[in-house]
Amino acid sequence: MNISIVTVGKLKEKYLKQGIQEYLKRLSAYAKVEIIEVADEKASEMLSAAEMELVKQKEGERILAKISPDTYVITLAIDGKMKSSEELADSLDRLATYGKSKIAFVIGGSLGLSQAVLQRGNESLSFSKMTFPHQLMRLILVEQIYRAFRIIRGEPYHK
Ligand SMILES: C[S@@+](CC[C@H](N)C(=O)[O-])C[C@H]1O[C@@H](n2cnc3c(N)ncnc32)[C@H](O)[C@@H]1O
């Protein structure tokens, strides 16, 4: 299975980089996982609603340019569908069974995802009703993908 995680902006914090690298290393036993970063737009605190839409639209175009037509896309959004770790594992297992070998998880920038990206998504996944910083979301996501593979393989992992 080829999994890409399409994200907005460069990851700066060392502690997040280290955590993500650790899970990518562990995941290499189960799948090819790559992180694709697209450039973020400068977004000051003072933007109008129209300007915020434009930021999301521009970032969205960059995201969509990285996704091939045959990719199954899972957008991450606060108001997406919540799943347990077992349900996420089951979804990934089913996708593999039905021949969907290319999967992209998409994390928005500080203002979120554009409508165009949400519409491209085959499903939308929520990690709770809370808002997480997009850079921390990467770490949470790679851990949950790793957990999903351990569950699929029936391998022990702390609860
Ligand atoms: C800082 S959040 C954006 C907040 C923005 N107000 C919104 O509603 O999308 C940046 C990105 O992180 C991801 N994210 C943050 N919290 C999330 C959650 N609880 N569930 C799923 N994705 C989340 C989403 O992809 C979001 O676009």
From TrEMBL:
It comes from the Bacteria. Keywords: Cytoplasm, Methyltransferase, rRNA processing, S-adenosyl-L-methionine, Transferase. One of its GO terms (cellular component) is cytoplasm. Its EC number is 2.1.1.177. It is found in: Cytoplasm. Homodimer. PANTHER family: METHYLTRANSFERASE, RIBOSOMAL RNA LARGE SUBUNIT METHYLTRANSFERASE H. It catalyses: pseudouridine(1915) in 23S rRNA + S-adenosyl-L-methionine = N(3)-methylpseudouridine(1915) in 23S rRNA + S-adenosyl-L-homocysteine + H(+). It comes from Heyndrickxia coagulans (Weizmannia coagulans). The gene is rlmH. Belongs to the RNA methyltransferase RlmH family. Specifically methylates the pseudouridine at position 1915 (m3Psi1915) in 23S rRNA. S-adenosyl-L-methionine binds at residues 76, 108, 127-132. The keyword Nucleus does not apply. InterPro entries: Alpha/beta_knot_MTases, RlmH-like, tRNA_m1G_MTases_N. Pfam families: SPOUT_MTase (PF02590). Transmembrane segments: none annotated. This is Ribosomal RNA large subunit methyltransferase H. One of its GO terms (molecular function) is rRNA (pseudouridine-N3-)-methyltransferase activity.
